[in-house]
Automatic annotation (TrEMBL):
Keywords: Membrane, Transmembrane, Transmembrane helix, Transport
Transmembrane portions of the chain: 223-247, 254-271, 287-307, 328-347, 395-418, 509-530, 536-554, 566-588, 608-626, 655-684, 696-717
Organism for this UniProt entry: Scophthalmus maximus (Turbot)
Name of the protein: OCA2 melanosomal transmembrane protein
Record InterPro entries: Cit_transptr-like_dom, Diverse_Ion_Transporter
UniProt keyword annotation of Membrane present: yes
Residues annotated as domain Citrate transporter-like: 242-662
Gene encoding the protein: OCA2
Subcellular location: Membrane
Keyword Magnesium: no
UniProt membrane topology term: Multi-pass membrane protein
Coiled-coil boundaries: none
GO cellular component, one term: melanosome membrane
Length: 726
């Protein structure tokens, strides 16, 4: 009423006053904007005061915590930030190299072959080049070729080796490449193979049951460097991306974008620069649509107060079980739900440990079924593996039993990692909440683009609010004394206060959200079992978010869009481009080929056990460093060919199960090892509870080693001890 009447009482206002009160005081305080002083000058002055106050606050907080042990990684982080000029130089070099080479513009040749008509082409422009990259499009299938019963194409690349010290005459060398042909001629597929030769003739022959004609499309191009050089370049780029993320030199989204651009520049240098259309096609839009739809659903769901209500209930359960102590083991179970369905923890606990534990068990649980993780979906969708008896039921039954054993050992191991380690914040709940409030106001002010007079005024008011709160924080830090033990004794009173404060705020909206979310989850499961439903997971999530937007009658759509983790979506887009570019640089193929060579070098009586161990750990380590989706897709044909090699004589099931275990459990090794890790880190960062790469690594990597050890023992016991190979 006083505000509407134009009356104020400055004595009643404090630093913790609401923004409305602070706004009114600022507008009516002649000391804030003097007389006819324009908003632009006052905003600049206020911004200087805001930055100065932030620096003073940071300095005072660092002095207040000087008695504590400093993290050496923080000092390294400061040192690495001093190299921003070097990073800009590297970006300039990448841009220069990328702009010097044109897009590959090799025309596609349309041709047709049959058992009676073959195709042959002479090459005269491939001299002094390191590689020939040959691409064929046609009705092909994946997997190895059975020459006795299957239709296939034979591609022969002929080269001539010039005479040398050991040879007096020119010798003709032929390299064969067999491609299985689809029996119904329906599926169109693009296959690629690289030859380390200087070719002179390319010949394509068809071996079919009848005289049908197979239409094909073909293109070829020369590359300037060898496979080993490409793999070395890809390894350097991947290591550089991890350095940027581990030491937090830049944000992980920017690190992924820089890495993808560096990989594209490397492709341009070797003569294989993709076009912009090709780069855009590398992005997995189904995954992005799934994440976007679920983020919109959760953004609306959070308005009901359901998440805060569940957080308070979970803490009451945690105290009851542990006799007034916070138990990481119980909390990890309580919060073992989807990452997207978590809200910021409003308790005086450090939620980062709980979030990391939740993500770890999400990845472990996803390995239990055929639809729980993308690598499993790729495996059960492979038709060649269907012929070997690896279908939905058999795969789920075997993996579920193994993951149950992994879970039974994971909970005690997690408890041991948190032994005698409380999850309390080191400061009082008032200071924690005040710091979080300052962070939220800062982020809000930074998101405002002062394009108009009114927006400039709002940003100035927000910065003034931050200055007031930082002054209050300095006063509280001077008089702060840790009283955690006293808080632990009064936990029942704290819980009662939290229950009064955090309740379901909109029951009608909650019913709508639960109904739509239930239908979406039901459609997720139905899509896996009913092939007549032609809706992918991304479409289901998008349609669910549209239905909820209509039912909830959202008027201010921009508020919902502000809650979407755009940085996370952009990170995944950059990661997809980076992984595909590294695959184009032969990195993933090289890992698979070297794994197969190591398995072939083992004695026959120990070959199966060594193959299981090798495939398991190579998959786990590779999936913790690179995306497990392209790695799994690349390793499946490698393992199929390995099992069908008469000289190796290995069953396919143990190798595939080892690949699935390693690819799924290996995602816990690093922060970017799995999609759930990145999504959870993005949402936590948005709410002011972000965790770094090393914070996740300290817990995730030991858990990955332990779970992979248990999974390896399960694989060896079932396939070596019990002989479950058929």
């Amino acid at each position: 009423v006083n505000i509407l009447r134009g009356k104020t009482n400055s004595a009643n206002h404090t630093e913790r006053s609401p923004l409305l009160s602070t706004t009114y005081m600022t507008l009516h305080n002649p000391g804030f904007v003097g007389g006819d002083e324009p908003w632009d000058n006052s905003s600049l002055d206020l911004e200087r005061r805001y930055r100065l106050g932030s620096e003073v606050t940071s300095l005072s907080l660092s002095r207040s915590s000087s008695s504590e042990k400093s993290d050496p990684l923080e000092n390294l982080n400061i040192n690495f930030r001093l190299t921003s000029s070097m990073s800009m130089l590297n970006v300039f070099c990448f841009q220069l190299f990328f702009s010097m080479y044109p897009d590959r513009d090799n025309p596609w040749r349309m041709l047709a072959v049959s058992p009676t008509d073959s195709f042959s082409m002479n090459l005269t422009d491939f001299r002094d080049n390191a590689l020939l990259k040959l691409q064929l499009g046609g009705p092909f299938t994946r997997g190895a070729v059975d020459l006795a019963s299957q239709e296939y194409l034979l591609v022969q690349v002929e080269q001539s080796e010039q005479p040398g010290q050991r040879r007096r005459r020119t010798q003709q060398v032929i390299h064969n490449w067999t491609i299985p042909v689809h029996g119904e001629r329906s599926d169109q597929m693009l296959v690629t193979k690289t030859f380390e030769i200087d070719p002179i003739v390319i010949t394509i022959q068809a071996f079919l049951r009848d005289d049908e004609v197979v239409p094909l499309s073909m293109t070829h191009q020369s590359l300037y460097v060898t496979v080993e050089t490409q793999v070395a370049i890809a390894g350097v780029i991947l290591a550089g991306v991890y350095v940027l993320i581990i030491f937090e030199i830049v944000h992980r989204t920017l690190a992924a974008l820089l890495g993808s651009f560096a990989a594209l520049a490397a492709l341009a240098i070797i003569g294989d620069r993709p076009s912009l259309v090709t780069v855009v096609e590398w992005i997995d839009y189904e995954t992005l649509a799934l994440l976007f739809g679920m983020m919109v659903l959760v953004a609306i769901f959070s308005d009901t107060g359901f998440f805060d209500y569940c957080a308070v209930k979970a803490r009451r359960g945690g105290y009851s079980v542990t006799s007034h102590r916070v138990n990481a083991f119980y909390l990890s179970i309580s919060f073992h739900i989807l990452c997207l369905l978590l809200s910021p923890i409003v308790l005086n606990l450090d939620p980062r440990h709980v979030l990391i534990a939740e993500v770890i068990f999400t990845n472990i649980g996803g390995a239990a079924t055929a639809v729980g993780d993308p690598p499993n979906v790729i495996i059960v969708s492979n038709q060649d593996l269907h012929k070997e008896g690896i279908d939905f039921a058999s795969f789920t039954g075997y993996m579920f039993l193994g993951i149950i054993l992994v879970l039974l050992t994971s909970f005690p191991f997690l408890r041991m990692l948190y032994w005698n380690k409380k999850l309390y914040n080191k400061e009082s709940i008032e200071i924690v909440e005040l710091k979080h409030e300052i962070l939220v106001w800062k982020q809000t002010a930074q998101r405002i683009n002062p394009a108009s007079r009114e927006e400039t005024a709002v940003k100035c008011l927000l910065m003034q609010k931050v200055l007031n709160l930082e002054n209050l924080l300095r006063k509280m830090m001077k008089t702060f004394q840790r009283e955690i033990s006293q808080e632990d004794k009064n936990w029942e009173q704290n819980i009662q206060e939290l229950q009064k404060e955090h309740r379901i705020t909109d029951k009608v909206l909650l019913v709508k959200c639960v109904s739509v979310l239930g239908v979406v989850i039901f459609m997720f499961f139905l899509n896996s079992f009913v092939p007549s439903i032609h809706l992918e997971l991304g479409w289901i999530a998008i349609l669910g978010s549209l239905w909820l937007l209509v039912l909830a009658d959202i008027q201010d759509f921009e508020i919902i869009l502000h809650r979407v983790e755009w940085a996370t979506l952009l990170f995944f887009a950059g990661l997809f481009v980076l992984m595909e570019a590294l695959a184009q640089l032969q990195l993933i193929d090289y890992i698979g080929e070297q794994t197969a060579l190591l398995i072939k070098a083992v004695p026959e009586d120990q070959r199966l056990a060594i193959a299981i161990i090798l495939v398991m750990w190579v998959s786990a380590l590779a999936s913790s460093l690179i995306d497990n989706i392209p790695f799994t897709a690349t390793m499946i044909p490698v393992l199929i060919n390995l099992s069908q090699d008469a000289d190796v004589n290995l069953p396919i099931k143990p190798l595939i199960y080892a690949l699935a275990m390693g690819a799924c459990l290996g995602g816990n090794g690093t922060l970017i090892g799995a999609s759930a890790n990145v999504v959870c880190a993005g949402i936590a960062e948005q709410h002011g509870y972000g965790f770094s790469f090393m914070e996740f690594f300290r817990l995730g990597f030991p858990m990955m080693i332990m779970t992979c050890m248990i999974a390896m023992c399960y694989l060896l016991a079932t396939h070596i001890g019990l002989g479950w190979n058929m």
